[in-house]
Design goal:
Blueprint: E1 17-20, H1 48-55, H2 72-83, E2 88-90, H3 96-100, E3 106-110, H4 121-128, H5 133-142, H6 145-154, E4 157-161, H7 166-170, H8 172-177, E5 182-185, H9 191-200, E6 208-210, E7 233-235, E8 237-238, E9 255-256, H10 259-271, E10 276-280, H11 296-313, E11 316-321, H12 324-332, H13 336-344, E12 353-360, H14 364-370, H15 383-396, E13 399-407, H16 414-426, E14 433-438, H17 458-480, H18 490-515
Parallel strand pairs: 1-2, 1-3, 3-4, 4-5, 5-6, 7-10, 10-11, 11-12, 12-13, 13-14
Antiparallel strand pairs: 8-9
The chain binds iron/sulfur cluster.
Length: 529
């Protein structure tokens, strides 16, 4: 099901630039963005076919093989090239073989985790000893013989980019197995036009193009998407001012997208029948902010505009990310979070707002070292309380966070991990998912060593168990409270419930073995059933 099919479109489109990615990227995840996380793991407790159907189902395509919805980053590249007059389209992976064999000049590929080295794929891989689905899916995509045949016979150029482009160099073998022509690192909205011009005129291109943060496109240079993004995701801001050392986003300059641009993109999605709006930013509550202090006026203007369309189209709503310090500050200064919730929720179509948040650690000592501004404007010494207060605000306003924390950060001690476990305990009463991640060297810490399987200790297992127990309990609750409530979601809901029960049982058995001293106190064999 993930392996790209060789499908022939009903009608042929003249395409010079085929923009695409594998099925794990080119899916709308049943209309529920969060289900896309399933593709970061291998099939667990379910037959592979069922897992693939849960993680990344196919979407409908038009007569030309263009998908109904596509990843936002690919839509931006498509828009930039179309605006510059190129024949460039996002094409579904099942129709790639057809187009690259028919005279396309280049294949442009984007991904957020090409080879499964990013979090949380690498973590599932480490824990289960099995390749994550997204990695296999991408390898199947890029290995399609038609791509390499077209390169050999007609000089098809292959350009790869997106936030995970570093993985091509991190895995030495990748560029040997799939000798792509160009790697583009950084925001490509502008530079891609120059790349396309050089491809059409047959000019040489460097193997790697880096767009440094200071050359990132200005707001007026960012093109507007012309066709729907996955689940109606639209960007409201780029960059983040908090400067966490493990994060690469922080290098980008901060830019707020004007309301009229956001509105235009929302309408592209809604008019095409996409039934949701996801506001995307590293911290939506910092839209129009004064530094790291959320401001009521821009946030209310943004959400009033959104609420107008939510009402009109009976659409669902979510934020991509917010920071916990911004949640607390916004509520304590003008009840901004409550005001937004009352604007966008209606207890019928939109019963709650889903959002990703980063806890990262419960240890003040470690927080001070790796994310000194994470709690700002509150002192970092108050970080655990900031987290709990923000969870409290979200629970009061029907906002359900999917929170991540990181194990194996450089310099981590046993006490740091116990501080995180303690914090997870304090979060017990709040409806939320808590997802552990293992440290992957990125951002200012990119030269540090990543966390490895042999570094796992008992206290890591305890942290994993605390997270699994918390998440399993609240996931059942969320499923029972209207997540996936459409009649066609029944089977999916049942499969997810079975999966949750399986993970709970398995986690308990692993924990009992470890704590029972079965594996001793050193490295722990987590992959054993
Ligand atoms: S708050 Fe989030 S996006 Fe911002 S720097 Fe920290 S981890 Fe990155």
């Amino acid at each position: 099901m993930v392996i790209p099919q060789r499908r022939r479109p009903r009608e042929e489109l003249a395409v010079d630039f085929v923009i695409s990615s594998d099925r794990c990227m080119m899916s709308n995840y049943h209309g529920r963005e969060f289900l896309g996380f399933a593709s970061t793991g291998p099939p667990i407790g379910l037959p592979e076919k069922a897992w693939r159907w849960i993680a990344c189902p196919r979407m409908r395509v038009d007569d030309y093989g263009r998908p109904w919805q596509a990843p936002y980053g690919l839509r931006k590249i498509e828009a930039a090239l179309q605006e510059a007059g190129f024949r460039a389209y996002v094409i579904d992976p099942d129709y790639i073989a057809y187009y690259v064999s028919r005279g396309a000049k280049a294949l442009l590929v984007g991904h957020h985790d090409y080879f499964g080295f990013g979090p949380p794929s690498s973590e599932w891989w480490m824990l289960t000893g099995r390749e994550p689905l997204n990695r296999r899916s991408f390898i199947e995509f890029i290995s399609m013989p038609e791509i390499w045949e077209a390169k050999k016979r007609r000089g098809l150029r292959i350009v790869v980019g997106g936030p995970a482009v570093w993985q091509w160099e991190a895995w030495g073998e990748a560029l040997e197995r799939w000798p792509v022509d160009v790697l583009v690192e950084g925001e490509a909205d502008r530079v891609i036009v120059e790349v396309a011009e050089r491809i059409l005129s047959g000019d040489e291109l460097p193997r790697k193009i880096v767009v440094p943060p200071q050359e990132s496109p200005r707001v007026e240079e960012i093109p507007l998407i012309r066709a729907p993004s996955v689940n109606g995701l639209v960007e409201v801001m780029r960059g983040c001012p908090r400067g966490c050392r493990f994060c690469s986003v922080t290098m980008k300059p901060l830019r707020f997208i004007p309301l009229n641009m956001i509105e235009e993109e929302i309408l592209v999605n809604l008019k095409a029948g996409v039934g949701s709006i996801i506001l995307h930013s590293e911290d939506v509550l910092l839209y129009g902010a004064d530094g790291i202090r959320p401001r009521r006026e821009p946030l209310e203007r943004l959400h009033s505009m959104v609420a107008h369309y939510l009402e009109g189209y009976r659409a669902g709503f979510a934020w991509s990310h917010v920071s916990l310090a911004a949640v607390k500050y916004a509520e304590e200064h003008g009840r901004i979070v409550s005001r937004i919730a009352s604007l966008v929720l209606d207890y019928d179509v939109r019963k709650f707002i889903g959002v990703e948040v980063g806890i990262e650690t419960g240890s003040v000592r470690l927080a001070r070292r790796i994310m000194a501004a994470k709690a700002a404007p509150y002192p970092i010494e108050e970080w655990p309380d900031v987290v709990v207060d923000a969870f409290n605000v979200m629970a009061d306003n029907n906002i359900i966070p999917a929170a991540t924390f990181i194990l194996g950060l450089p310099g981590e001690t046993e006490d740091d991990v116990y501080a995180t476990i303690e914090l997870i305990e304090r979060l017990k009463p709040y409806p939320s998912l808590i997802v552990p991640m293992f440290f992957v060297p990125l951002g200012a810490l990119k030269d540090q060593e990543g966390f490895r399987r042999e570094y796992i200790r008992e206290y890591h297992v305890e942290a994993l168990r605390a997270a699994v127990e918390h998440t399993a309990r609240w996931a059942q609750y969320i499923l029972d409270r209207g997540y996936l409530d459409k009649p066609h979601h029944r089977l999916l809901k049942l499969a997810l419930k079975m999966f949750i029960r399986y993970v709970e049982k398995k986690a308990r058995r692993v924990y009992e073995r470890v704590i029972g001293g079965y594996y001793g106190s050193k490295a722990v064999a987590l992959a054993s059933p």
